[in-house]
Design goal:
- This protein is mostly beta strands.
- The chain has one domain: Lipocalin, CATH 2.40.128.120.
- The chain is 13% helix and 66% strand.
- The protein contains 1 helix and 9 strands.
- It has an 8-stranded antiparallel β-barrel.
- Strand 6 and strand 7 form a beta hairpin.
- The longest helix has 16 residues, at 2-17.
- The termini are far apart.
């Protein structure tokens, strides 16, 4: 019984500490230099929703977002030069810091994003 109670407390604290809700500003080094992006995340249980905004592709809505502890995954669909692209993100939050890995469409190109929570 004591072991079960300790496990429940541990999981409750881990879930609370890993909440990515808020606004995040991130940066990645791309093929043409540094890129900036803003994410706004909302969490409902294990579901992650929100949007992202960048100078390159504008606003996009998060799709298929999930939270698992301090790990997050989601996709976005955007239009670039008349072509619709879908990218997938997976990342990890640690307090007010975030790292994200983005696989850009079918290109196989990967971008590594790092940033901080601003709100």
């Amino acid at each position: 019984m004591k072991r079960l109670l300790l496990s429940l407390i541990f999981f409750a604290l881990a879930a609370f500490a890993a909440d990515p809700t808020g606004t995040w500003k991130v940066t990645a080094d791309g093929p043409n230099g540094s890129m900036d992006r803003t994410f706004t995340f909302k969490v409902d249980g294990t579901k992650l929703t929100g949007e992202t905004n960048s100078d390159l592709v504008g606003k996009s809505t998060l799709e298929d977002g999930k939270v698992d502890g301090d790990n997050i995954t989601f996709n976005i669909t955007f239009e670039l030069q008349g072509n619709q692209m879908k990218t997938s993100f997976k990342g990890k939050t640690a307090g007010d810091e975030i790292t994200l890995s983005e696989v850009v469409g079918d290109t196989g190109m990967t971008l590594e994003w790092k940033g901080k929570r601003t709100q």
